[in-house]
Every structure is written in C-alpha cells, then in structure tokens.
Design brief:
The complex is a heterodimer of chains A (115) and B (114).
Chain A (H helix, E strand, L loop, with lengths): L3 E4 L2 E4 L5 E7 L5 E7 L5 E9 L2 E4 L6 E3 L9 E3 L8 E8 L10 E2 L3 E5 L1
Parallel strand pairs in A: 2-11
Antiparallel strand pairs in A: 1-3, 3-8, 4-5, 4-9, 5-6, 7-8, 9-10, 9-11
Chain B lengths: L2 E3 L4 E5 L4 E3 L2 E3 L5 E7 L5 E7 L5 E3 L5 E5 L4 E6 L8 E8 L7 E3 L3 E6 L1
Parallel strand pairs in B: 2-12
Antiparallel strand pairs in B: 1-4, 3-9, 5-6, 5-10, 7-8, 8-9, 10-11, 10-12
Classes of the chains: A mainly beta (115), B mainly beta (114).
C-alpha cells in the first residue's frame, strides 16, 4: 500500500540531546512537509521540500534541521537548540500539482517527549 | 495576511443530530480549500476538497462542504452524526503563490453523545 511511514511513533529524549524523526513515502510525491502540532494551535509548518536536495524553512524552523537526499525520505532532526521540543510531529507529502493545490497525505505522527 | 479561522474549539452533538463546523478564511486569490479529520494520536485524513466548479462538494463518510466566496467561508456539514465521527476537524487553505504552503485552522474537537 502506498503511504507515508513515520518512525518512531513515540520517542523520549533527555534535554540537550538531538533526535531524528524518520519520514518515508512511496507515493512518488515531489513535495514533503514537516508540521508540529500542539494542543489548541493547529498545525505549524517547520520545513518543506519541493524537490530533492532543496528545502525551505517554514514558520517555526528554529531549532530544527532537515535533509532531502532522496525523493522518498525527509528526516527531521530536533536539535538541542529547540527550546520546547515536546510535541506531536506530522510528516506529509503532496504531488506536484501546483503550489498548495494538491491534497496533503499525512503519516501517523511521532510524539516526542523531553524528560 | 493569510489565515484560517475555526471559531468553535469544541462542539458537542447527539448521535443522529445534524452537524455544521464553521471555517472562515482570509486569502487574496482563489482559494484551494480542504477539510481534514484527525483521530487522537493519528495523522490527518482528507475529508473533502474544493478547487473550482460546484460550490457544494461531497466528501467521504457522508460529509459535505459549501464554498461561499461572499462570506469567505467553507463550512463542513453532515446530516446525521455517528458516534465514530468524534474526532478533531481541521480546515485548511492551500496557497497558489508558488511556495507550496498550506494554512491550517486551529481545529474543532467534536464530541458525540450516545
């Protein structure tokens, strides 16, 4: 089945540690996104990538980094510089149908808790 | 500035009752509009979308939404709610500015009473 796979589903981290969240898609989509979800705040865009080897900052990129070395993969690293990393992280992708016109396909999410 | 407003944070309805979730947007160009549903601890699933044409769009699970340009609204409706509809619902606007960005509302959490 085509879709987006995020791992791990749950992750615990000590303060000062970097962690990497995995996102893999087999939908052959060009664009991939990372969102952060906090209660009552909806989804906020962290980073997005339209093509391989290219990505742009979203609205809340500070303390995060990404790479896009393969079309299928868009990992997110939460660095120690992120002041409040405890959140639910969602990866999404869309086909190249024009900016913001194609629907987003979401993974099941990764919940990061900083101890 | 582009924005999406979902004025109702929580809504409670009885099973079998009708439902309307409100969504208002602010966007200068032709909007691409979406409704997504999210169960607790899960990702988002697309319910329906509007790009152009008929302003009343049908989606999955018996949902429909109506685009009203004059009111900048895209309200979601269902004639008869089922207990399994309890979830959080998000309205979103897709921008056509070439930046591949989507703007989400803050969500409406639906509770269904048996």
């Amino acid at each position: 089945d085509g879709g987006i796979t995020q791992s791990p589903k749950y992750l615990f981290r000590k303060e000062g540690q970097n962690v990497t969240l995995s996102c893999e898609q087999n939908l052959n989509h060009d664009a991939m996104y990372w969102y952060r979800q906090d209660p009552g705040q909806g989804l906020r865009l962290i980073y997005y990538s339209q093509i391989v080897n290219d990505f742009q900052k979203g609205d809340i990129a500070e303390g995060y980094s990404v790479s896009r070395e393969k079309k299928e993969s868009f990992p997110l690293t939460v660095t120690s510089a992120q002041k409040n990393p405890t959140a639910f992280y969602l990866c999404a992708s869309s086909g190249r149908q024009g900016a913001g016109t194609g629907e987003l396909f979401f993974g099941e999410g990764s919940r990061l808790t900083v101890l | 500035a582009q924005s999406v407003t979902q004025p109702d944070i929580h809504i409670t309805v009885s099973e079998g009752a009708s439902l309307e979730l409100r969504c208002n947007y602010s966007y200068g160009a032709t909007p691409y509009l979406f409704w997504y549903v999210q169960s607790p601890g899960q990702g988002l699933q697309l319910l329906l979308k509007y790009f152009s044409g008929d302003t009343l769009v049908q989606g999955i699970k018996g949902f429909e939404a109506e685009f009203k340009r004059s009111q900048s609204s895209f309200n979601l409706r269902k004639p008869s709610v089922h207990w399994s509809d309890a979830a959080e619902y998000f309205c979103a606007v897709g921008t056509s500015s070439g930046t591949y960005k989507y703007i989400f509302g803050t969500g409406t959490r639906l509770k269904v009473l048996a």
